[in-house]
């Protein structure tokens, strides 16, 4: 994952490719795979509708595809669906569901999710406010190269006690030792 923890998703099919007079819909192959249960294809369909480069932007449709992929544990889809839920974009706002999705993705090692979940914990958005746990997840994101998490670690370090920081370090190490594929 690049610094900052956010991967720029390349369009599935570029807008230029659509000028070639294709006889089949541009996402037909991905849609078939997505409907067949392929979590990556479901995520890609969600991104297509989120970005609106290949198909008309439709946040509700994006949320549906992300939800299918997120249900299968696709960490990138969990983050994207969490974002839509957190801010009520294309779906009804639900901070608790957003925080839960961020946590699921964060536990798999997704640095963007770690920073977003930590923000929820820091603000008490959708979860009980817990600065020590927030610091732990910011530490994880920072270890993964997330710039936002790095800034938050520095900021929170000034307000937490040494005992809180030590507890957060232990939490982060425990999560890292039991986390998914990215560690």
From TrEMBL:
Spans annotated as Disordered: 1-25
InterPro entries cross-referenced by the UniProt entry: Mitotic_Regulator (IPR052945), Sel1-like (IPR006597), TPR-like_helical_dom_sf (IPR011990)
SUPFAM superfamilies (UniProt xref): HCP-like
One Pfam family in the UniProt entry: Sel1
Residues of the signal peptide: none
Name this polypeptide is given: Sel1 repeat family protein
């Amino acid at each position: 994952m690049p610094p900052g923890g956010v991967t720029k998703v390349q369009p599935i099919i570029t807008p230029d490719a659509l000028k070639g007079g294709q006889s089949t819909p541009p996402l037909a192959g991905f849609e078939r795979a997505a409907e067949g249960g392929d979590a990556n294809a479901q995520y890609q369909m969600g991104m297509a509708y989120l970005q609106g480069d290949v198909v008309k932007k439709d946040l509700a449709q994006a949320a549906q595809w992300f939800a299918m992929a997120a249900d299968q544990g696709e960490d990138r889809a969990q983050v994207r669906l969490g974002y839509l839920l957190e801010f009520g974009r294309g779906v009804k706002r639900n901070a608790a569901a957003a925080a839960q999705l961020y946590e699921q993705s964060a536990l798999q090692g997704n640095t963007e999710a770690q920073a977003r979940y930590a923000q929820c914990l820091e603000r008490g958005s959708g979860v009980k406010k817990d600065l020590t746990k927030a610091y732990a997840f910011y530490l994880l994101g920072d270890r993964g190269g997330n710039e936002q998490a790095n800034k938050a670690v520095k900021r929170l370090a000034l307000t937490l006690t040494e005992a809180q920081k030590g507890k957060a370090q232990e939490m982060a190490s425990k999560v890292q030792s039991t986390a998914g594929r990215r560690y």
